[in-house]
């Protein structure tokens, strides 16, 4: 049997031998990690977490409840490995959140086979989301990390906003976000799936999101790929700009959505800029191989009149090189359109679309700008 030092040495060899794509360390999978957990520090209660995070690089959180109104703060050491086991849930309190906040550098966070992060949103939902009703904690899973991988994380019933990301050189793979209970009586609102801002070099992949707002939302970020992500009930595969009055906080560059699907949703592709914000540039955004099914408003909506939808767009955000390739699907309902484009004067340039076809619309496309390769 290995000694403690030998086991740690083996783990370090596994952890630090990674691909150059993520700062030179290699991610490990759960099966590998769990075989080494005899040398991990186990936290089986909220009260144990703070000291264990300070003392240990290799940590397992096991099956406990976080007290009402408290954040599970996980300020991980450099190169730390964190495993979730069992159910981590959060006692009810009407406060802002977040429930979990993870910081660190070159870290790995892995969900165990039967783990669950349970936000107990069903005890908060009242049909109002963030616009009224009871105060709901925002962000079940908040990340501010420089370099890392997050694998196979299961999240259920977010009161509001599920996963919030700030950081660089991060991969999120195998996320399963389940807010299906929020459809009962239309009570779940603003349960955004995954969103990132002020970030660079982000990958979100191989994930499933069931929710009642944006499925994935990109804000003020660069160099990201969202691939093989499948959404249900959401508001869209989204790009957002103009949220800030500061010009430098509105830029979005080099973002790709590919091999994704979205269905039973309010929107399919949703690209929105806020007229009240500062100036900015959105450049080199690509949607490739996107399947849209049974959307109830617009299959594809690029709008510079958000949120008023009043046909009076602003040109504070310049949108260039917007590429749609093989985007197909269906919409249904009496108010649906396949495509709506509402651009501000002179703010949209060099859009190239091919293989774009949305069927089932009851209204004609509504476009004040015409992409190359698409007639609307």
How is this structure best summarized?
With 376 residues, this protein is mainly β. Helix content is 7%, strand content 48%.
What would your notes on this structure say?
- The protein has 2 domains: 1-202, 3 Solenoid (Pectate Lyase C-like); 213-376, Single-stranded right-handed beta-helix, Pectin lyase-like (Pectate Lyase C-like).
- The protein has helices at 4-16, 30-34, 46-55; strands spanning 41-43, 58-66, 72-75, 81-90, 100-111, 116-118, 141-151, 154-156, 163-173, 176-178, 194-197, 200-210, 214-219, 222-232, 236-241, 252-263, 267-273, 280-295, 298-303, 317-331, 337-342, 348-349, 352-359, 366-367.
- The chain has 376 residues and is mainly β.
- Helix 3 links the parallel strand 1 (41-43) and strand 2.
- Mean pLDDT is 92; it is low at 1-24.
- It is globular.
- It has an 8-stranded parallel barrel with strand order 4-5-7-9-12-10-8-6.
- The chain starts with a helix and ends in a 9-residue tail after the last strand.
- It is built from 3 helices and 24 strands.
The low-confidence parts are 1-24
Tally the beta strands.
Answer: 24
Q: Strands across the major sheet, in which order? A: 4-5-7-9-12-10-8-6
Radius of gyration: 21 Å
Give the tally of structural domains. 2
Mean pLDDT: 92
- Decide which structural class fits the backbone: mainly beta
Determine the CATH topology of the largest domain: Pectate Lyase C-like
Task: Please state the second-level CATH architecture of the largest domain.
Answer: 3 Solenoid
Helical amount among residues, as a percent range?
A: under 10%
Residues in β-strands, percent: over 45%
Which overall shape is indicated by the principal axes computed on the Cα atoms? globular
What would CATH call the homologous superfamily of the largest domain?
A: Single-stranded right-handed beta-helix, Pectin lyase-like
Number of helices: 3
Q: Tell me about the biggest sheet?
A: 8 strands, parallel, barrel
CATH class of the largest domain: Mainly Beta
Terminal-residue CA separation: 69 Å
Order of helices and strands: HHEHEEEEEEEEEEEEEEEEEEEEEEE
InterPro entries: Glyco_hydro_28, Glycosyl_hydrlase_28, PbH1, Pectin_lyas_fold, Pectin_lyase_fold/virulence
Protein name: endo-polygalacturonase
GO molecular function: polygalacturonase activity
Subcellular location: Secreted
């Amino acid at each position: 049997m290995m000694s403690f030092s030998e086991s740690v040495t083996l783990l370090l060899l596994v952890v630090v031998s990674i691909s150059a794509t993520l700062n030179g360390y290699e991610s490990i999978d759960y099966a590998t990690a769990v075989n080494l957990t005899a040398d991990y520090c186990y936290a089986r209660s909220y009260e144990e977490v703070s000291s264990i995070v300070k003392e240990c690089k290799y940590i397992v959180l096991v099956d406990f409840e976080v007290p009402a109104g408290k954040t599970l703060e996980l300020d991980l050491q450099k190169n730390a490995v964190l495993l979730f086991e069992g159910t981590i849930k959060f006692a009810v309190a009407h406060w802002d959140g977040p429930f979990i906040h993870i910081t660190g550098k070159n870290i790995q966070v892995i969900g165990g086979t039967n783990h669950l992060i349970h936000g107990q949103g069903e005890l908060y939902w009242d049909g109002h989301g963030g616009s009224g009703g009871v105060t709901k904690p925002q962000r079940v899973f908040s990340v501010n990390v420089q370099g890392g991988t997050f694998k196979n994380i299961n999240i259920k019933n977010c009161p509001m906003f599920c996963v919030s990301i700030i950081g660089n050189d991060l991969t999120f793979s195998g996320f399963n976000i389940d807010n299906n209970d929020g459809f009962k009586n239309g009570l779940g609102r603003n349960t955004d799936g995954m969103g990132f801002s002020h970030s660079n070099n982000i990958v979100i992949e191989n994930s499933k999101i069931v929710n009642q707002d944006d499925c994935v939302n990109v804000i003020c970020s660069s160099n990201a790929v969202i691939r093989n992500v499948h959404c249900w009930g959401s508001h869209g595969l989204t790009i957002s700009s103009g949220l800030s009055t500061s010009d430098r906080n509105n830029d979005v560059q080099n973002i790709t959505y590919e091999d994704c699907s979205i269905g039973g949703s309010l929107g399919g592709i949703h690209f929105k800029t806020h007229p009240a914000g500062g100036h900015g540039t959105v450049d080199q955004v690509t949607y490739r191989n996107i399947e849209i099914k049974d959307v109830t408003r617009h299959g594809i909506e690029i709008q510079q009149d958000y949120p008023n939808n009043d046909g009076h767009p602003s040109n504070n955000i310049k949108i260039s090189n917007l590429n749609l390739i093989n985007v197909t699907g269906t919409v249904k309902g009496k108010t649906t359109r396949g495509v709506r484009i509402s651009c501000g004067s002179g703010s949209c340039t060099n859009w190239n679309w091919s293989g774009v076809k949305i069927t089932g619309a009851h209204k004609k496309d509504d476009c004040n700008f015409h992409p190359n390769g698409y007639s609307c």
